[in-house]
Write a structure and sequence with these properties.
globular; six-stranded mixed beta sheet
């Protein structure tokens, strides 16, 4: 006698209601990030998104995924309009929305296939949430690496930079934190769907995940002394379209540095774009930096656009009086459509006026994101490089004892962008167990301790300086050591698991379908 087929998974919501819930889930998720920063809302947004996908068809899941994506990204990256207007905003939000929609389909398939493969309740409470969390993480990893260098900006884990859950990132990285958060949301949904309130065993998976999120302490790296860092936010006209006289940004940085003259410091840090001429080829700029290094009696870590041969780089450099730039690091991931135009011929044909505004073509750097400051390893990430795991982990593995992140947020003044980027810097401190000095041309600038707390800071839109004793740390966190493997496992492993589940589900469905071979069988089948 054939086995009873597994019941079809029915949608929890009719399509019209799912579309409305998805539309609400997007802005709710956005409010988990700065500037609003109500971090528990990340669980609400993710949970609502998952509820809309259960029991859907592939086309239905695509529809609700698109609605969720567009309602999230149009709000989350509205700061792009401050730079080039609504066309780039719609283009980037639209691209990410497509990926969100397509990435919703595998999650729906997991909800459809898993009950057929493992119909036992324990599997729905444990293995299904694990698969759902893996597939959500896969989507994040894909969006963070393609096309070109990807856009790993709105990762779920990054919403927790100021929450008590952030410490888990020191063990599993940001992707690992995303995974656990989504698995928790999926486990809670399955517990509610089970409706076995009196059976406490059904709540154990969700409760265990909640405990993991709440009580996991930060991995402790080893104290290794301190470095006195002077950092300067000049608040000069450093935006791409700002009107300015030659070297106006340099002068603003020099003016804001003056209060540090005569102070006891180990290094003076300036932001990305703090010099608006190339000190490697401009003798007067080099002379100004030598004079500055003399006044503070310390080496400088500064940044400028530099030219070497036919290539232009976004370059951070260690500058020593009388020696010039003794070490260089070039930005690893220039921003597509901001710092260079990939496939310029194609995009210029579409929007020639906008593409024509981007004249400078930065070349990706290949040198290590690390400077040796008299034996102290200083890890670097220039502006949006802070969102790329590989840059941060490479610096830590190469010996960074502190991170100094240089950024120029002038094109996004008075928007959420600088606070969202600051959240990345804070999470990197926790993830690596290192102090971070995050210095911007226009703010917000902060010094962040290895546990994510703020040590010092400068408000946005004001010129100023910080003089801070910054703790050095050594030792690698599990996130740095295992992070690449975690990403590989969650990315490809989740896809492989879904394919395997799909194959088994297809076989089971064929086995459960009665085979009709003749009139007698037909009568038995219909009778």
């Amino acid at each position: 006698m054939p086995e009873t087929p597994a019941p079809a998974v029915r949608p929890l919501l009719p399509l019209w209601a799912a579309l409305l819930v998805a539309a609400a889930a997007g802005p709710i998720l956005d409010m988990a990030y700065p500037s609003v920063g109500i971090w528990p809302l990340a669980f609400v947004g993710v949970g609502l998104s998952l509820v809309t996908l259960i029991g859907r068809s592939a086309w239905g899941s695509l529809a609700v995924g698109l609605v969720f994506g567009v309602c999230f990204y149009l709000v989350h990256i509205a700061w792009i309009t401050r730079y080039l207007g609504i066309v780039p905003w719609f283009a980037l939000a639209g691209l990410e929305t497509v990926f969100m929609g397509l990435g919703a389909i595998p999650i729906t398939l997991a909800y459809r296939w898993m009950p057929r493969v493992l119909p036992a309740r324990w599997a729905q409470l444990t293995i299904l949430p694990l698969l759902v969390g893996g597939l959500w993480s896969t989507r994040e990893l894909f969006m963070g690496s393609w096309p070109y260098t990807g856009f790993p900006w709105a990762r779920i884990g990054m919403s927790q930079s100021e929450s008590p859950l952030a410490h888990l990132a020191s063990w599993a990285g940001v992707t690992g934190l995303t995974f656990v958060m989504v698995v928790f949301c999926a486990a809670v949904i399955e517990w509610v769907r089970a409706r076995r309130w009196r059976d406490l065993r059904t709540v154990l998976p969700a409760a265990a995940l909640a405990l993991l999120l709440v009580v996991t302490p930060a991995w402790q790296t080893a104290p290794a002394g301190a470095l006195r860092v002077g950092s300067v936010q000049g608040n000069g006209p450093s935006g791409y379209f700002d009107d300015r006289e030659p070297n106006a940004v340099l002068q603003a940085q020099l003016n804001a540095s003056a209060p540090l003259f005569g102070k006891d410091i180990d290094v003076l840090l300036w932001p990305e774009g703090g010099i608006d001429s190339d000190p490697l080829s401009n003798a007067s700029t080099a002379k100004a930096l030598d004079a500055l290094a003399s006044r503070v009696a310390a080496p400088l870590i500064v940044n400028a656009a530099t030219t070497r041969g036919d290539d232009i780089f976004n370059t951070s450099m260690l500058w020593v009086e009388g020696q010039g730039a003794v070490q260089l690091h070039d930005k690893r991931n220039p921003v597509p459509m901001g710092e260079y135009v990939p496939d310029r011929w194609f995009f210029e044909a579409l929007v020639p006026d906008l593409i024509g505004l981007i004249q400078r073509e930065y070349t990706p750097g290949t040198n290590p994101p690390l400077l040796d400051l008299d034996g102290v390893g200083v890890g670097l990430a220039i502006c949006f490089d802070v969102i790329y795991d590989s840059v941060i982990w490479e610096g830590a593995r190469d010996g960074a004892e502190v991170y100094m992140f240089q950024t120029n947020n002038a094109d996004f003044r008075e928007t959420d962008e600088n606070l969202q980027q600051l959240a990345f810097a804070r999470m990197r401190a926790i993830e690596t167990g290192r102090s971070v000095v995050n210095i911007s041309t226009v703010g917000t600038s902060q010094v962040i301790a290895p546990d994510g707390t703020t040590i010092d800071g400068l408000a946005a839109g004001e010129a100023g300086h910080m003089l801070t004793d910054v703790e050095l740390r050594t030792g690698l966190t599990p996130a740095v050591v295992l992070g690449p493997w975690v990403n590989l496992l969650l990315g490809w492993g989740a896809l492989a698991a879904l394919i395997a589940v799909g194959i088994v589900a297809r076989v089971r469905r064929r086995e459960e379908t009665p085979t009709v071979t003749g009139p007698a069988s037909l009568n038995a089948a219909v009778g």
